[in-house]
Amino acid sequence: MFTRRCIWVNGPVIVGAGPSGLAVGACLKNRGVPFVVLERADCIASLWQKRTYDRLKLHLPKQFCQLPYFPFPDDFPEYPTKYQFINYLESYAKHFDINPNFNETVQSAKYDETFGLWRVKTISASGLIPVEIEYICRWLAVATGENAEKVVPEFEGLTDFGGPVAHACDYKSGKSYCGERVLVVGCGNSGMEVSLDLCNHNAKPSMVVRSSVHVLPREVFGKSTFEFAVSMMKWLPLWLVDKLLLIFAYLILGNTEKYGLKRPCLGPLELKNTAGKTPVLDIGALRKIKSGKIKIVPGIKKFSRGKVELLNGQTLEIDSVILATGYRSNVPSWLKTYAITCVRNLRTVVTTLQVLFLIYSKIKILINVCNYLQENELFSNDGVPKNPFPNGWKGSGGLYAVGFTRRGLSGASLDAISVAHDIAHAWKDETKQTKKSFAARHRRCISHF
Ligand SMILES: Cc1cc2nc3c(=O)[nH]c(=O)nc-3n(C[C@H](O)[C@H](O)[C@H](O)COP(=O)(O)OP(=O)(O)OC[C@H]3O[C@@H](n4cnc5c(N)ncnc54)[C@H](O)[C@@H]3O)c2cc1C
Ligand SMILES: NC(=O)C1=CN([C@@H]2O[C@H](COP(=O)(O)OP(=O)(O)OC[C@H]3O[C@@H](n4cnc5c(N)ncnc54)[C@H](OP(=O)(O)O)[C@@H]3O)[C@@H](O)[C@H]2O)C=CC1
Ligand SMILES: O=C(O)C(=O)Cc1c[nH]c2ccccc12
Fold this sequence. Notes:
Blueprint: E1 3-9, E2 12-15, H1 19-30, E3 36-38, H2 46-50, H3 82-95, E4 104-112, E5 117-124, E6 131-137, E7 139-142, E8 149-150, E9 165-167, E10 181-185, H4 189-200, E11 204-208, E12 215-217, E13 219-220, E14 223-224, H5 225-233, H6 238-253, H7 268-275, E15 280-282, H8 285-290, E16 295-297, E17 300-304, E18 307-310, E19 315-317, E20 320-323, E21 327-328, H9 331-334, H10 340-357, H11 360-374, E22 399-401, H12 408-434, H13 439-442, E23 446-448
Parallel strand pairs: 1-6, 2-3, 2-7, 7-22, 9-20, 10-11, 10-20, 11-16, 12-15
Antiparallel strand pairs: 1-23, 4-5, 5-6, 8-21, 13-14, 17-18, 18-19
Helix pairs in contact: 1-12, 5-6, 10-11
């Protein structure tokens, strides 16, 4: 049973209370614009508080990770721990007096063309009875993140495996894996750091590398590699910076291909920009790989009871599996376009015709048209903005994206400043016009229907 409520918001609705949502909230506060933040979890920065392992530290230096208008404390180390970062975010929310509505999951957000308003529906699980709430607003800032949902690939036979299978987002420490043979699937920063942590707790990790990966040292000549790359980008083209990074990586780490870590054809920064694939910034896993403490294995063929068969025909006996297989955005599941229903129907008809008449090539064009129409005009079907950085933060009808730049926390901060600036201008214009007639309603941020 649901209770229903409808709330008018005089200002933007921000979806997500992670660093991006907090940053845009802070920038709006600075400009005197009221807003509401909706968060599905019961705390701010739920990714950091609930879905990361104990030993996690920021892997970019602190100056690239602080949010607008509130620097990290002076005594923070170069690479703050996750607990320091969480404390900072708590202080940030307190400093700017940001009070998200917790336990409220956005189910859908639709643009009502007739009124030029957003209708954002949530289910609030705070009380004993779930409450369905509809927020109505002029502006919608999407800050649900690039890592909103875990990616869990399907593997043949995994259900017969019998041992524990966890995603990296549920991994806390290697303590409970002591002495175990663990298969870590994936070799991004999560796979590498989970494998390292397992080693440090006397477990025996084998890490699956199915394709390729760029491993870079976290520091070159005592300076952060990231900072070094950022400085070089001011003077040199990206391809040259990539070449230099790879030369330094070779000089410092040696030939990583020798250990089964094939490098991608594209350079590390180009790959990050085009495919969003983050290079691994090594904090010690490579040493364990070189010493054989972390075994590198190829792609998976199938699982069976207590075993995994690999693509090279080798079979390993394993006790547990950790899927460090990454994350994805959840925007397509709740952000609707007005055309979505009719386009879906059209798509079904077209697919049926395709099956009936087998005239594939002509129909394929129509299917592509349907896919295009089904997409939101700001976000692609993958749930990230279609336009690359720095042009992916603004859509039409008052829609904004914060924190989808593939540039981590520094990208989120830049988005937040641009979005708040834009909304503040529009908000001030609109409130000026409506001030007299709606004076009473606008005195408070929210008024209930
Ligand atoms: C393990 C890990 C380490 C990282 N380390 C770094 C680093 O060192 N430096 C760096 O620059 N970047 C780093 N990143 C990148 C990372 O994306 C950012 O650090 C940051 O958390 C992104 O902030 P965000 O607010 O955009 O997303 P998130 O932190 O994911 O916050 C989004 C929030 O939206 C909420 N939400 C999602 N869907 C809904 C919904 N439907 N309704 C309501 N609420 C919803 C979520 O619960 C969440 O609280 C790291 C990422 C990971 C996974
Ligand atoms: N200290 C820090 O600050 C940390 C930061 N992070 C950040 O969090 C984000 C997410 O990182 P991460 O969780 O590592 O995810 P990534 O998306 O970076 O990596 C996913 C890995 O899983 C592999 N994979 C996916 N599906 C399969 C499959 N079916 N079989 C075998 N392998 C598979 C991918 O291989 P393929 O490339 O072949 O697709 C890739 O190696 C990144 O931006 C990262 O930088 C993460 C951990 C620590
Ligand atoms: O850790 C992440 O996910 C980030 O997005 C941080 C980041 C942004 N640009 C980069 C380039 C190289 C390594 C990390 C990052």
